[in-house]
Design goal:
Oligomer: single chain
CATH topology of the largest domain: Immunoglobulin-like
Number of helices: 1
CATH superfamily of the largest domain: Immunoglobulins
Largest sheet: 6 strands, mixed
CATH class of the largest domain: Mainly Beta
CATH architecture of the largest domain: Sandwich
Number of domains: 2
Helix content: under 10%
Structural class: mainly beta
Amino acid sequence: MHLWRTLIILGVFAAGSSPAAVIYKWTDANGIIHYADQPVPGAQKITTSSDTGPRVVAPPPMAAAARPPQAAGNQDGAAYTTFAIASPTPEQSFFSEPVPVQLTLDPALQANHALTWTLNGKPLDSFANQAQFALQNLPRGAFSLVAAIVDARTNETLKSASVTFYVHRPSILSPLHKRP
């Protein structure tokens, strides 16, 4: 009986004194966050320890060859300072209403640039070059929205972070479960 207690106590101490783990976190070109135990260029190094909790270490600067393409600069060569989807917000839910879409872009879209949208990887051609519109009659489910700016002269593309949102609809089989 005493042997089991001793083994349990030693197991608890061994679990509490586990060594620190190192993981790497990065976001790909489609805005998807990845984690790995091997370093990737531009990845953020995260060290975990049972004593201090997670500790984030800034990633080393990427080599010029490993950098994603810097695209869609204005006529002066300066890049856009703000390029993000303001609406819908990440993980936002909609209940049978139109989904408002709004892009925050500074400076304004340049004459030789085109703004495109994709929803779940499929182009939304009817909303090209529009920074604000509404998506109507979407079926129930999860959706991923991405904006992209394409420079017509260089054909370089700058993509926004992907925003995932959800559309909820009452079930045909259970119409009494409608949202009030």
